[in-house]
Amino acid sequence: MDLDFDIVDLDPVEHPEEGDTAPDFTRPLVNDEFWEDESLASVCADSDRVVLVFHAMDGAFPATYIWNEIRDRTWHEQATVVGVSISTPYEHKQLLEEREIEGDYRLFSDPANGVAQQYSIDMDLDGMAGIEEPRPSVFVLDSDRTIEYAWVAQEWPDFPDYDEVEAQL
Q1: What's residue 101's pLDDT?
Q2: Where are the beta strands (DSSP E) in 32-121?
């Protein structure tokens, strides 16, 4: 498959780091049956470990690659894994079905990209005036939202070191 895109260096950002408390937020959390507003704090309180994955909008190739890799590595067996993107709950339902991850993973819907702004990982989409999404990022959190691992893309497209994330799990 020949993908035609340019690698873009992203400006440095001051995102939350290991040892920081991850900012809390409440957004619609989509699962295999429905969606409802839920906070990150409540997701963390119900789990020993949470992997928070910021990804491109559903349907974009980076989101497909990231979720295929996470699915194939079965991270849900070691932690609660939730995603965040600008996609709507309807688009998230479709992603869960298409990637065959419904039941194992849930996705926060954040169309205004406010959560990425809280984490200082928002970026403009090239060539789309007024449209932004989160940079690809992964945060591993404990039950108190303390960040145990943080990875934020320095270029687009970029993907996490999945082995490093697994080492944290």
Answers
A1: 85
A2: 35-39, 49-54, 80-85, 106-109
How many Å apart are CA 106 and CA 30, to the nearest integer? Answer: 5
Place of tokens 């507003």: 37
Say how many domains are in the chain.
1
Neighbours of 105 (CB within 10 A): 24
Find out whether the peptide bond into 62 is cis, omega within 30 degrees of 0: no
Which residues of the chain, if any, have pLDDT below 70? 1-5, 126-128
pLDDT of residue 76: 95
Structural domain harbouring 50: 40-167
Give yes or no for a contact between 22 and 145, defined as CB atoms under 8 angstroms apart: yes
- Joined together, the tokens standing for residue 80 give 């609660």
Q: Is residue 85 part of a domain?
A: yes
pTM summary value: 0.91
Neighbouring residues of 147: CB distance < 8 A, sequence distance ≥ 6:
16, 17, 18, 19, 20, 21, 22, 139, 140, 141
| CA angle in degrees (0–180, nearest 5) for 58-74-53 | 40
Q: What is the CATH number of the domain that holds 134?
A: 3.40.30.10
Burial class from Cβ neighbours inside 10 Å (0-12, 13-18, 19+) for residue 148 reads middle
